[in-house]
Amino acid sequence: YVETLARPMTGRLNEAALARACTEARGLALDTIAGCKSGHLGLPLGAAEIGSALFGYALVYRTEDSKWINRDRFVLSAGHGSAFLYAWLHMSGFDISVDDLKRFRTLHSKTPGHPEFGETDGVECTTGPLGQGVGNAVGMAIAAKMAGAIFNTKEHTIIDHVVACLAGDGCIQEGVAAETSAFAAHCGLDNLIILYDSNDVTLDAMGSKTQSEDTARRYEAYGWDTETVDGHKVLDVLHAFNRAKKNKNGKPKLIICKTIIGKGIPEVEGTNKAHGEAGVKFADAARKALGLPEDQHYYVSEETRRYFDGHKNAMKRDYDEWTRTFQAWRQAQPALAQVLDAAQKGELPLNLMDRVPAFPADSKPDATRNTGGVVLNVLAKEIPLLVSGSADLHGSTKNYIKDVGDFSRDENGGRNIYWGIREHCMGATMNGIAYYGLFRVSGATFLTFSDYLRPSIRLAALAKLPVCYIFTHDSIGVGEDGPTHQPVETIMALRCIPRLDVIRPADVEETAGAFVVALERKDGPTALVLSRQNVPNLASISPQERREGVRCGGYIAVMEKGGRLDTILLATGSEVQHAIAAAAELGDGIRVVSLPCWERFERQPQEYRDHVLPPSCRRRVAIEAGVSLGWHKWIGLEGKTVCVEGFGLSAPANHVMKEKGITVENLVAVVRALQARPFGLARTLR
């Protein structure tokens, strides 16, 4: 029976050692959560045998090289059970000490309340919002399939790992898990294994209060293989995981592990009270019942430490064998090795901006979504691991990469992803692809539908993922489709997310600059907000000024004439043309500032910001085809806005713009009214 286990690391399976590790992992969770009087005991106690099977035997990893490209990925989708993950990472030999466990949920610790990517060795992604980890795992599995298709050869296989995800009832209930699970099956991700900690409990009540489905049959209908096991029998979990890992039949695998939440605390186990820290007051009795030393907290026996030391040594033999294969691959495939090295370092070609040719000065007006498609295809030739996709809108978002194929169950090497009408799936899987660490990923939909993936955008920003969102149809300029498809509040809502760059370019060259800086960015996501309506090429400004202006977030598009600065007009996107036209009509003293990315502008030195927006000039007017909320940050209390304060209308775009006052004529009128007002008195113009 033991000989059937895939890639056995220890030769003989030491059941007693795995059982002992379960007990001590439960003790670590009890002590960790009791120590800070905060946390979630239910999962760490209920899923201990799952952790033992995975970290004690089944997963392939290397603690001394925790970013090893061919490690098995483990995602804790039920991130509230973080004490589970920290305990097993500690025992496995990752860089988490007993002191780190003692600092659980404290300021600047390596053991935050929910796992955070980049903060803790061995944590593959930031989880906590339920279901997101399922989507992240699907994205990682897509990236692994794609990487295998690109880098593996007939002679050398360097990527063949699996992605394992531990999810709870809450994760499985979430819509994002449903979207991504359906997509995983459609893509044939047989390298994905979800272990469902099925304890029939949610936070508020027993699971029967809110769910009555047959989850196994639902997943089988998606196209998954399913198996149900006793989650408290290590060998049953291990054997099921082994079958799932070996079975490359084009289907992802769901292992339903029936468990008792809070196992080991009889006062709360099996009830929703076990979910959080309600069992903490019984911790001492629980530790005693487990047979743990009463006078030694955070206890891990020497036997367990020796077991994991031996397990690491056994895994090293497998790692060393892979290393020999990898070195042979490098010698045989120097060009591929160069691509892989650059990807792992996050390196892009130098002078990327210069690789996008300038657009002809006499080019006809065009929508920035169309320009974006042109620029994306130029950059895709320079960045071999650039991936793009759309939520069933390639024909409208214009972000299809030519000549690189489409990712599918039959073509894993394609770099275009068809997510279907699954925006939340797109967002969560894009994060997973970014967590994987090799690909630059972008995905597209209409701006108004960005709310469908907002939770994933927020997590990308929190985790500093270099994800690129392409949001088209950016305003009431959408026209006839009407207010359901005309975003007015959406761009401001995106600007509220910390660490998310939101770029709304004005023309072809600003669009070129926007795509380049978005892909160059390594420390967070970027949302590119593009128009459906045509905009002119602002050829009176040099291409370099426009592109570098986007890099800085804002720049002087038109310098005031006459030697005296009287009024500053600020604009983004399709309204920059109106500001320039208004300045020409208004005459001397009018400066126009294009402010495509507020976040980038804020990161500039104060000296630069004051150069573009001199504090001495308080007469300012902003124009943007969206709500005015937020603009007073730039125009001050005495400034005015020409914005859209209500929903749009169903009519041709020019009619809607005129109805809502987004015109040169209205902007000029507002400026003249402001100029006529005795300045220095803050009062509302009507």
Please describe what this structure looks like.
There is one protein chain. Helix content is about 40%, strand content about 10%. It is an alpha/beta fold.
Relevant terms:
686 residues; alpha/beta; 5-stranded parallel sheet; 26 helices; elongated; disordered N terminus; disordered C terminus
Helix content: 40-55%
Low-pLDDT segments, ≥5 res? 1-11, 681-686
- C-alpha termini separation: 82 Å
Mean pLDDT: 95
Q: How does the overall form come out from the CA principal axes?
A: elongated
Q: Strand order across the biggest sheet? A: 8-7-9-10-12-11
The largest sheet, given as strand count, sense and whether it forms a barrel, is: 6 strands, parallel
Structural class: alpha/beta
Describe the structure concisely for a colleague.
This protein has 686 residues and is an alpha/beta fold.
Helix and strand topology:
Blueprint: H1 15-36, H2 42-46, H3 48-58, E1 73-76, H4 82-92, H5 98-102, H6 132-151, E2 163-168, H7 169-173, H8 175-186, E3 192-198, H9 215-222, E4 225-230, H10 234-246, E5 253-258, H11 283-290, H12 302-332, H13 334-345, E6 366-367, H14 368-382, E7 386-390, H15 394-397, E8 416-418, H16 423-436, E9 440-446, H17 454-462, E10 468-472, H18 490-495, E11 501-503, H19 508-520, E12 526-529, E13 534-535, H20 543-552, E14 555-558, E15 567-571, H21 576-586, E16 590-594, H22 598-602, H23 606-612, E17 620-623, H24 632-635, E18 640-642, H25 653-659, H26 664-676
Parallel strand pairs: 1-2, 2-3, 3-5, 4-5, 7-8, 7-9, 9-10, 10-12, 11-12, 15-16, 15-17, 17-18
Antiparallel strand pairs: 6-13, 14-16
Helix pairs in contact: 1-3, 1-4, 1-11, 3-4, 3-10, 6-8, 6-16, 8-16, 14-19, 16-17, 19-20, 21-26
